[in-house]
Design goal:
heterodimer, A: 47% strand, elongated, B: alpha+beta, 3-stranded antiparallel sheet, 2 helices
Chain lengths: 110, 179
């Protein structure tokens, strides 16, 4: 999994001022599941999964997601965004190892 | 012998006393760290990566919403899920709402909760006026055939909930046990 942390963001092909668009974002991440021993009890260790997703537009936080291990591997998130003007969209995924994976997209009006 | 007697007894008494102190001390440390660890785990909301204890869905709802009642959200919230999920490890879920995200009464958060997962709380989405509308979709893991709920929390504390039943063919949460 050499590309863990690769973030891709998809925007609609045509965006007009004032539109509420759907943004699709995807991150490559294992989202580790809890493991059990043969007796069926949980193995206590630090599991690596994404626990927070923060979306910001032009530096301002517009959306936040708290996630758990019940989110799939290589998770996809769709979220809304009201576009009042062009700008830079950032989606940051933070995992429990302390790493943050960021993806950027330019929102252009057409 | 008169000399041996005190030498023989004093170390035994000392050792016993010492052991008592040590055992007591270790006990105190263990219980304190247990308490500390639990508060830490709850406070972090799972961001430490350590597994949190299993929870029935009633306990999750109580932890998240206290004793506030869940009002039926039909017509306000739309929850889209497949009827049958062949792979419980990747189930697409969409929550759409016609409730506003700005103004006097607006949606602050949308929760996705699965009744029969080990930890029912799956994700919490928080909106701002810049979101424009309340709409999310993601892919989740389901342990078994279960009801999935979407709960919208309004700015005034009102809760609207809708639920859907999903049949799961292969569990998304079972890994083979480790040796």
């Amino acid at each position: 999994m050499a590309e863990v942390g690769r973030v891709s963001i998809r925007l609609p092909s045509s965006i007009k001022q004032g539109d509420v668009i759907r943004v699709r974002s995807l991150v490559i991440h294992p989202m580790e599941l809890v493991q059990r021993d043969k007796q069926g009890s949980l193995i206590r260790k630090n599991y690596n999964f994404i626990h927070a997703v923060v979306v910001s537009f032009n530096g301002k936080e517009v959306m936040r997601v708290e996630t758990t291990q019940a989110i799939s591997q290589n998770p996809m998130f769709t979220f809304p965004l009201r576009v009042d003007g062009p700008g830079k969209l950032t989606v940051a995924f933070s995992d429990t190892t302390g790493k943050t994976y960021e993806g950027n997209a330019e929102v252009k009006l057409s | 012998m008169a000399i041996m007697e005190p030498i023989k007894t004093t170390p035994v008494v000392r050792r016993r006393g010492f052991l008592r102190v040590v055992v007591g001390f270790v006990g105190v440390i263990v219980s304190a760290s247990n308490v500390l660890f639990k508060t830490y785990a709850w406070g972090q909301g799972g961001s430490s990566g350590l597994p949190l204890p299993d929870e029935p869905v009633e306990a999750t709802l109580k932890r998240l919403f206290g004793n506030r009642p869940l009002s039926p959200g039909e017509g306000k919230l739309k929850l889209e899920l497949p009827l049958i999920a062949e792979d419980g490890g990747n189930v697409a879920v969409t929550v759409e709402s016609n409730l506003p995200v700005s103004g006097a009464a607006h949606v602050n958060h949308i929760y996705v909760i699965s009744d029969k997962n080990r930890r029912p709380m799956i994700a919490k989405f928080s909106f701002t006026p810049e979101s424009g509308r309340a709409l999310i979709s993601t892919s989740i893991r389901l342990a078994t055939t279960t009801d999935v709920r979407a709960v919208a929390e309004m700015s005034d504390g009102t809760l609207y909930a809708v639920s859907r039943h999903v049949r799961v063919t292969i569990s998304g949460c079972d890994l083979p046990p480790q040796s």
